[in-house]
Amino acid sequence: MGLKLLVVEDDEGVREMLKLVLNYDGHDVIMAKDGTILDSLAEINPDIIFLDEWLCNERGSDLCRKLKANASTAGIPVILLSALMSVQQFSVQAGADGFIRKPFDLEELTAVINRYA
């Protein structure tokens, strides 16, 4: 049985690629282009949040800090995404549960999902 995954990514091409791959693997995927979707987390109730570090008007690591500071969302695994390896340090400081470098290695993506299945 698949997981419910929330992907917050401002690049439409990356969003669509992730949706195709994750849907093919049997997951229920909710896509968003910015952090405003996080206001609806209670209704969405995702199993994992994939959060791009460099969104249009905000940083994924800042959003991650907010999620981890809130008792109702602190337990949701948050995986930061970025093409820059330096973001891996931000992910640890922000309390993220993981980091995946773009371009994605599909085996790594699957391994991260399986870790929380």
Automatic annotation (TrEMBL):
This protein's record includes keyword Transmembrane: no
Biological processes annotated in GO: phosphorelay signal transduction system
Species this chain originates from: Pedobacter westerhofensis
Lineage per the UniProt record: Bacteria, Pseudomonadati, Bacteroidota, Sphingobacteriia, Sphingobacteriales
InterPro entries: Bact_response_regulator, CheY-like_superfamily, Sig_transdc_resp-reg_receiver
Protein name as catalogued: Response regulator receiver domain-containing protein
Signal peptide boundaries: none
Residue positions where 4-aspartylphosphate is found in the record: 52
Alphabetical list of SUPFAM superfamilies matching this protein: CheY-like (SSF52172)
Keywords for the protein's UniProt record, in alphabetical order: Phosphoprotein
Highest taxon in the source lineage: Bacteria
Coiled-coil blocks: none
Every Response regulatory domain range: 4-117
Record bears the keyword Phosphoprotein: yes
